[in-house]
Write a structure and sequence with these properties.
The protein is α+β, with helices and mostly antiparallel strands. It has a single domain, classed as Alpha-Beta Complex (Aminoglycoside 3'-phosphotransferase, Chain: A, domain 2), CATH 3.90.1200.10. It is 49% helix and 14% strand. It contains eleven helices and eight strands. The strands form three sheets. It has a three-stranded antiparallel β-sheet, with helices on one face. Strands 4-6-7 form a three-stranded antiparallel β-sheet, with helices on one face. Strand 2 and strand 3 form a beta hairpin. Helix 3 packs antiparallel against helix 8, helix 3 packs parallel to helix 9 and helix 5 packs across helix 10. The termini are far apart. This is Aminoglycoside phosphotransferase domain-containing protein. InterPro entries: Aminoglycoside_PTrfase, Kinase-like_dom_sf. Pfam families: APH (PF01636).
Length: 253
C-alpha cells in the first residue's frame, strides 16, 4: 500500500488558515471523525499536530480516477449530510461554526475584488454580482445559519477533491475546511466550483430537497470570485468560472 504524506507548516498569523484553524481541524477530522464518518475517505496512518506544524500520513489514492460523476457526488454529499444532521456540532464541538472568520474573508474579498476589476475586463453580469457583495460578505456568510439544519460539511466539496475507484466508489479528500453548517453549502460549492450550469438542475435533483440553496449562494459566490481572481486571463479555466458565476447571479436575480 502506498502512502501520501501531507505536511503543513504553521499557518501565518492572521491568515485565513490561521483564523479558521484549518490545518488543526483536518488532523482532528482524521483522528475523530473519519473512523465513523460513513463515507469513503483516505485511511489515516499517522496524524501529528505541534509547534512545527501538522503531518498526516494517508492512504495514497493517486491510482484512482480524479474527480467523480457530479450526480453521484451530490448523492454522496446528501448521504453525509443526512447522517450527521443535528449531531455533528454536539459530537465534535471543535467544528468551525457558521460565520467563523467571516470578517477576515470579507476584507480579503473587498481587497481582491478591487484589484480584479481594476486589471481585468470582467463581464457585466459578474461585475454586478461582485459589486453587490462588496462590504456584505460577512453578512452573507452568517446568513447560512438560516439555510437549514446544521450538519457535518466537507467545506470544499469540489470535484477536484473527489477520487473514483475502478468500481465507482467515490472518496472525499482534503478535509481542511471541515465544519458545521447547512448541507446546501456543500451543494452550492459543488455547483459553483465544478458543474457546468446546464447540469445544475439535475445535480440539485440528485442531492434532494435543497430549500436553502439560494440563501448560501451569495457567500459561495464570494469564494468563486476569489477563485476567478487566481485564474489566467483568457484561459479556459477563467471562462468556466465566469460561466458558473453568471449562472449563480441568475439564481439571485
Amino acid at each position: 500500500m502506498g502512502y501520501f504524506v501531507k505536511r503543513r507548516d504553521p499557518a501565518i498569523p492572521g491568515s485565513i488558515p490561521d483564523v479558521l484553524g484549518s490545518f488543526h481541524s483536518e488532523v482532528l477530522f482524521y483522528r475523530e471523525v473519519a473512523p465513523v464518518v460513513g463515507v469513503r475517505v483516505p485511511a489515516c496512518h499517522l496524524s501529528e499536530d505541534g509547534p512545527s506544524g501538522t503531518c498526516l500520513v494517508l492512504e495514497d489514492l493517486s491510482t484512482w480516477h480524479p474527480g467523480a460523476d457530479p450526480l453521484e457526488a451530490a448523492r454522496l454529499l446528501a448521504d453525509l449530510h443526512r447522517r450527521w444532521q443535528g449531531q455533528a456540532a454536539m459530537r465534535w464541538p471543535w467544528l468551525r461554526p457558521v460565520g467563523a472568520g467571516a470578517d477576515v474573508v470579507g476584507r480579503l474579498f473587498d481587497r481582491t475584488w478591487s484589484v480584479l476589476v481594476g486589471c481585468r475586463d470582467v463581464p457585466p453580469p459578474v461585475r454586478r454580482l461582485g459589486e453587490r457583495l462588496v462590504g456584505r460578505v460577512a453578512a452573507a456568510a452568517r446568513a447560512e445559519g438560516t439555510a437549514g439544519p446544521a450538519t457535518l460539511l466537507h467545506g470544499d466539496a469540489s470535484l477536484s477533491n473527489c477520487r473514483t475507484s475502478t468500481d465507482a466508489e467515490i472518496a472525499l479528500l482534503d478535509w481542511e475546511d471541515v465544519r458545521a453548517g447547512a448541507g446546501v453549502a456543500d451543494l452550492a460549492w459543488l455547483l459553483l466550483s465544478s458543474v457546468e450550469p446546464a447540469r445544475w438542475d439535475e445535480v440539485v435533483a440528485a442531492y434532494g430537497p435543497a430549500p436553502g440553496l439560494s440563501t448560501v449562494i451569495p457567500a459561495t459566490t464570494c469564494q468563486a470570485l476569489l477563485s476567478l481572481a487566481d485564474t489566467a486571463t483568457g484561459s479556459a479555466e477563467e471562462a468556466a468560472w465566469i460561466s458558473r458565476i453568471t449562472a449563480a447571479g441568475t439564481l439571485l436575480a
